[in-house]
Amino acid sequence: MINETLNRLSREMRSFNSLIVMNLVGAGLAVAMGMAFVVRNVHPMIAARTIIWPEAAMVALVVAVGVLIFRWFLTGAEMMDEYQDLREKNFGYNDGAEESATELIVKNMAFYRGHRKSMNGLILGSLVTGAYFLLSATGQVRYILSVLGSRTPFEVAFSLVGFSLCLVLGVAGVYISNMFRRYEATWDRRLQETAEAEKRLGELLEGSS
Amino acid sequence: MKGKRTLYEIYWEILTFCRTPRTFTSIIQRCSLNSDIGQEHIGFLLGKGFLSRYEDDGANLHRTTDKAKPFLDSFREMYLELYNRGPEFKL
C-alpha cells in the first residue's frame, strides 16, 4: 500500500515537473517570437527614420503583451526552481517509507498553497498565448493557400514552418492551461480534505493536555 | 520546508525532526521558522508534553516524547488517506 502511495507521488511529481518545463518552453518560445516580430518591424522604421503605421501600433501591442509573457516566463522559472528543490531535498528525518510519503505530501501541499495564485496567472497566460497563436495560425492559412502556386518552394516551406510553429504553440498553450487546471482541481480537493483532518487533529491536541 | 504550511503541519515537522534530539537553532533552521514563531510553537509542544527539553554537554536539546505518538500517527494516517483518495494527477 505504502509503496503504491510512493509510486503515485513519484508519478504525480514527474508529471507536474514536465508540465512546468513545457510551460517554461512555451513561454520562452513566445518571448522569442515576440522579440523576432519587434526586430523585424522596427528595422524598416529605423532604416526609413520614420514611424510606419500600422506596424508601429502592432509593435507597441506586442511589447505590451511581451511584458506580460516575460512575467509569465519568470513566474514559471521561479516555480520550476522551487519545485526542483522540493524534489531533490531530503530532510533526513524520514526514517521509514510512511514518513517519506507523508513528508512528500506535506511538501507538495505547502508548495501548492504557496503557488495557488501564480498558478492562476500561468493558466491565464498559457491560455491567452495559446489562443493568440491559434488565431495567428488560422490567419496564416489563407496566406499559405495564396502563395502555394506563386512563390518559390523555399518561401512556401518557410511559411509552412511558421504556420506549424504557431499551431504547435497554440495547441500547447491550451493543453498546458488545461493541465494546470486539472492539477489545481486535484490539489484543491486534497486541501479541502485537509481542513477536515485539521479539525480532528485539533480535537486530538485539545484532548491531550 | 518552504511554502505555506498549516499549524499542524509545522507541529508534525518539528516533532518528526526531533525524534533525534535537536537544538532550538537546528529546529528553526530545518523547519524554516523565525525565532519568535519557533519559540511559540516549541513552547506549545513543550506545554503539551509532546516535546521534552534537557541539557546535554551544555546544549539545550529537544526530543519528541511518547505522548506525541498518537498525534504523529493520526497525522500520518489522515494525510496518506486523503492523498490516496480521489483521482491521480497525470499528463
How does this model look, in words?
The complex is a heterodimer of chains A (209) and B (91). Chain A has helices at residues 2-48, 55-88, 97-147, 153-206. With 209 residues, chain A is an all-alpha fold. Chain A has one domain. Chain A is elongated and about 80 Å long. The relative contact order of chain A is 0.11. In chain B, helix 2 packs across helix 3. The model of chain B has no long low-confidence stretch (mean pLDDT 93). In chain B, a hairpin with a 2-residue loop joins strand 2 and strand 3. Chain B has a 3-stranded antiparallel beta sheet. With 91 residues, chain B is an alpha+beta fold. Chain B has 4 helices and 3 strands, in the order αβααββα. Chain B has one domain (7-84): Arc Repressor Mutant, subunit A. Chains A and B meet through helix 1, helix 2, helix 3 and helix 4 of A and helix 1 and helix 4 of B.
Uncertain runs of chain A are none
Between the first and last Cα atoms of chain B, what is the distance in angstroms? 26 Å
- Using only C-alpha atoms, the radius of gyration of chain B works out to 15 Å
- Oligomer class: heterodimer
Q: How many separate helices of chain B?
A: 4
The CATH first-level class of chain B comes to: Mainly Alpha
Short summary of the structure?
Chain A is mostly helical and 209 residues long. Chain A is built from 4 helices and no strands. Chain A has one domain (2-90, 98-199).
